[in-house]
Write a structure and sequence with these properties.
This protein is mostly beta strands. It folds into two domains: about 20-155 and about 165-180, Jelly Rolls, CATH 2.60.120; about 180-280, Sandwich (Jelly Rolls), CATH 2.60.120.10. The chain contains two helices and 22 strands. It has helices at about 140-145, 165-170; strands at about 20, 25-30, 35-45, 50-55, 60-65, 75-85, 85-90, 95-100, 105, 115, 125-130, 175-180, 185, 195-200, 205-210, 220, 225-235, 235-240, 250, 255-260, 265-270, 275-280. The strands form four sheets. The chain has a seven-stranded antiparallel beta sheet, with no helix packed on it. A seven-stranded antiparallel beta sheet has the order 2-3-4-11-6-9-12, with no helix packed on it. Strands 5-10-7-8 form a four-stranded antiparallel beta sheet, with no helix packed on it. A hairpin with a 3-residue loop joins strand 14 and strand 15 (about 205-210). The longest helix is centred in the middle third of the chain and has 7 residues, at about 165-170. The protein is globular, with a radius of gyration of 19 Å.
Length: about 290
């Protein structure tokens, strides 16, 4: 039996630097059996500037849009595939983009989206979303749009012109696939022990992949926007030199740290094994409306 009312997504917020353990992230199951399919969410942060969650699709699972769950948003959205494979689709135009672990699928406002797991194992995805649902960019925004009535899983605009039309397709794409070799790399510190790669950077959302070399002891930085760090590999030590509460925090894989704008912090690999993380930073201009 399908639900008749969509349960609201949890919106955990914090007013100070906070470590969110995987087991403490707010759990949420959304979808409907007669339409969209089901998605399991773990929400880490959902503030006025940034929404961050980890979602799972079951083996051969999917989500699509339905009248109860129209999947179109008034925001920039980045999906980071952590484990498994994901097929991300723009069903309005038939754009189909396969993603593997480490890839980022990025789309902007008014992009209808479906997602499928083609494998017999779960797929795990880290999602960064800004402007966030607290700005009415999710369900209320989606329900304000006419429901998409025709679904396409093949983009016929390029028939009889492939691969000659590849550049044209890329220019018209609603879904952008960003792989590690596409990142804009930079060094947060001049000793080379901390490598960062920008995967997405817009006026609302920045998504960065970072790697700390074994034993790296980072310099002090400041969070210029509201930021969430999510550890994927190794153990990351976070130092908050100006915070009145606990100054040192150990983050294991799938733990996250919320850093309000202006937070001073240092990242270190004390264990000597190296560490990898993803960071999302969100910002919404004063007076912005969806």
């Amino acid at each position: 039996m399908s639900e008749t009312v969509r349960r609201p997504t949890p919106r955990p917020t914090y007013d100070h630097p906070t470590v969110i353990r995987q087991q403490d992230a707010a759990r949420h199951l959304w979808g409907d059996s007669d339409g969209s399919g089901y998605v399991s969410d773990q929400v880490y942060v959902s503030s006025a500037d940034l929404h961050v969650l980890h979602f799972t699709l079951t083996p051969r699972g999917r989500y699509v849009h339905s009248a109860m769950n129209p999947t179109v948003f008034g925001a920039d959205v980045a999906y980071v595939v952590l484990e498994g494979e994901l097929i991300l689709v723009d069903p309005e135009n038939g754009e189909v983009r396969p993603l593997k672990a480490g890839d980022v699928g990025f789309f902007r406002r008014d992009t209808w989206n479906h997602a499928m797991n083609p494998r017999h194992e779960p797929v795990h995805v880290l999602e960064f979303f800004s402007p966030p649902p607290s700005r009415n960019t999710a369900s209320p925004y989606a329900r304000s749009k006419p429901l998409l009535t025709e679904t396409r899983y093949r983009d016929s605009r390029w028939d009889n012109r492939w691969p000659a039309a590849q550049a044209e397709r890329d220019a018209a794409a609603r879904i952008h696939v960003v792989r590690e070799e596409d990142h804009l790399h930079w060094l947060p510190e001049d000793n080379g022990g901390h490598l960062a790669g920008t995967a997405v950077d817009t006026e609302y959302l920045t998504v960065t992949h970072g790697y700390l070399s074994p034993g790296h002891m980072g310099e002090e930085h400041t969070a210029h926007d509201e930021t969430v760090l999510y550890v994927t590999d190794g153990t990351l030590h976070l130092h908050l030199p100006a915070y009145e509460g606990p100054a040192w925090h150990r983050l294991e894989p799938h733990d996250a740290a919320y850093l309000p704008k202006g937070t001073a912090y240092r990242l270190m690999d004390v264990d000597g094994n190296g560490a990898r993380y993803w960071a999302g930073a969100g910002r919404v201009p004063v007076g912005w409306q969806p």
